[in-house]
Each structure stands twice: as structure tokens, then as C-alpha cells.
Amino acid sequence: MNRLRYSVDLSYEVLDAEADFLFNIEAARTARQRIVSERLTVPPVLRMDQYTDAVLCNRLIRLRAPKGHLAIHYEAVVDIDHRLDDPSTLHEVPIAQLPFEVLPYLAPSRYCESDRLMEFALREFGRVPWGYSRVVAIREWARNHVRFLSTSTNERTSAVDTIVERTGVCRDFAHLMIAICRALSIPARISSSLDYGADPALGPPDFHAFVEVFLSGRWYLVDPSGTSIPTGLLRIGTGRDAGEIPFAAIFGKVESERPFVQIHAVTDTALGLEMPLYTDWGICTW
């Protein structure tokens, strides 16, 4: 089991009379991800509404802030009990056998234009053996053909843009892999996390995007950017693409500061808490 301690500090200046915010920064509760402790700090004078999606487990915070400074702090200790499966046992599921709730993750979305990448996907991966090995082939193609470059893209960059420009950040790698998987009829979606284990040369700790693919009846995580240690990826938000899970959606005239993020692993041999490690096995945290 892995235990991760993380914190997020967000800072804004509201320039109009007021502005509305939706935050998705709290750790999700799933069968394999448990919150040991957490604390959310917002200005006490603000009314706050909280909502948890019953299916995806996304936890949303909604508040309206008046003109002036707004600071949000969240911290949590999270345990992840990974399910690790032999890759040779993970198979693609025929469309006729997919659960209905999984079908939306086959369709094109705003940032994952799988319909436009179908010819490319079939040419590159149509003859690759089906199953986890094909997912790994897609992941490796993205890593070998796209260069990770901070601030090289923006919120409008899509999978098609990335395959043309061949540079991007974690969300661009994720969108590209999701689009290729969907073009091959492999359900795929995006999840938000923090970049545990990332090279400090890439910059200070930040939010991170990874991919989940549906194989053998479960969702398995994959990090196509290769910048983080997969078993150190805790789950915050999950959706069809990044447009559905921003850590902050802002409605109004607001100046934003860069998020301040920290994440560390907690180890304790007596409790069976180990450091996150790389593994070739399929990783499920759902």
C-alpha cells in the first residue's frame, strides 16, 4: 500500500464585484483509495456548497467570492491499495459486452477527436496484438514521438494539434492517447492527480493528468507522459477529457496566481506503507 500526503494552495484576486468558482482539488474516495485525513480552509464569511458525483467520485466545491483576495487551502493524507494484474490477463472488451456506463468513453470529445485519428490509429496499431500490449504500444508511441515541453501548449490544444506539433504537457499526452485508444474501440478517459516523482528539472510540483483504459472489466491507469511514478498517482477528478475536470473553473474577472502544490510519500514498514515504485503490471485504483 502507498500513503501520500499532499496540499494545494490557490490564490486569486477578484476584480469585479464578485466571481463564482468551482474547485476539484479534493481526493476522490473509491474502493481502493481511502482518505486518512483531510482539511479544507476557505474564508469563513463565504458560503460554500459541496457535491460528490455518485459515479465518478469527483468532489466539487462551489463558492462565490466578493471583490478582493481569495485564498483556498486543502491538504489530505491518502492511502492507495493498488490492484496489480498480470498484463497477459488483460484483454480488450468487445463493444457488445461493454457496460453501458462505459460506452461514453468510446466517443470523440472536445479535446480527443478520435474520429479524426481513426485512419492513423488503424495504420499504426491495427496489427498490434490486442489487449494490454496494444495499450502499452500506444503509450510508448506517444512518449517516443511527442516531446514534453512545459508551457508549449494552451487550454485550446487538442489531440490532433499534439500529433501535428509533437510537443505538449501531461494533459496533451493524455488527450492524444485517449483519442487513439477510442479510435481503436478501447474505452479511455482522463484523471487528474499530482505529479509525484516528476523530475524537479521540469519545474515545481503541479497538477498532473493520466489516462485510464477499460480492459477485462476494470479501469487501468497509464501515464503516457512518463513524468510521474504510476503507483504514486492518486485520484482527484475523472472525466472524458480535461474540459470536464479542471482543478478550478472561474466565472468572472479574476487574476490567478500559479497553484502551490506539495506531495510526499509516507512510509512505515510496520503498517505496510511502501514507497511508490514503477511496475510493468496493470494498475487499477478504482
From TrEMBL:
Residues 162-226 form the Transglutaminase-like domain. Pfam families: Bact_transglu_N_2, Transglut_core. InterPro entries: Bact_transglu_N_2 (IPR048930), Papain-like_cys_pep_sf (IPR038765), Transglutaminase-like (IPR002931). Gene3D superfamilies: 2.60.40.2250, 3.10.620.30. It comes from the Bacteria. This is Transglutaminase family protein. It comes from Cupriavidus basilensis.
